[in-house]
Design goal:
The protein is of the alpha/beta class. Helix content is about 40%, strand content about 20%. A five-stranded parallel sheet has the order 2-3-4-1-5, with helices on both faces.
């Protein structure tokens, strides 16, 4: 919100980053579609497997969705495009890069949200530099355009409360204890 241009969403595996981003993108898009003459669009782009060296991530995504080059340019000129980029840590390649600058993402006119696993990025000294938009003048100005949030996983009590509500709403024959027991059995579903 406000003057912030870039949001970096960090969180451990399974903490809900992708779920939150998909929900945010859907709400943004719904708002865009229900506002008469809206000049905003929202794109949710998975970064999984995308080369870090790519300088046309958004254009490539739109072309994969069936848009021709002329349509991509028209969309870019006509709309303020909010970009939700999911999975910086899942990109292909070893070299860290600032996608905002290398892909000229600010030229799309909207907000930029990028998600990344905490355990991937935290060990890298001064990692925020890979997510700061280019600011004319100083790094301090760029920091004013940037915000970072961290998702946290549910604790056992929150999981039990959620599953209790889920089980009560379902017409299945399973009860809360059966769901909790099943979750414990599935490898990798819980820490």
């Amino acid at each position: 919100k406000g003057d912030k241009k870039v949001l970096l969403m960090l969180g451990h595996s399974g903490s809900g980053k992708s779920t939150v981003l998909k929900s945010m993108a859907a709400k943004w898009l719904e708002s865009n579609l229900t506002t008469p003459k809206s000049s905003e669009l929202t794109l949710f782009v998975s970064l999984t497997g995308v080369p870090r060296t790519s300088t046309t991530i958004v254009q490539d995504y739109l072309k994969q969705q069936g848009l021709a080059e002329g349509q991509v340019q028209e969309l870019k000129q006509r709309f303020k495009v909010n970009l939700v980029l999911n999975g910086y840590d899942e990109m292909h390649g070893d070299e860290m890069t600032n996608l905002i600058n290398s892909n000229n993402l600010e030229n799309w006119g909207g907000k930029i949200i990028i998600s990344c696993r905490t355990q991937y990025i935290a060990p890298i000294p001064n990692y925020k530099r890979f997510f700061l938009p280019e600011a004319r003048g100083s790094n301090r100005k760029a920091m004013g355009l940037f915000e970072q949030v961290t998702t946290v996983p549910f604790d056992d009590k929150q999981i039990e409360e959620y599953i209790g509500k889920f089980a009560a709403a379902m017409t299945s024959e399973w009860n809360i204890h059966q769901y909790l027991e099943f979750i414990q059995k599935v490898s990798g579903l819980r820490n």
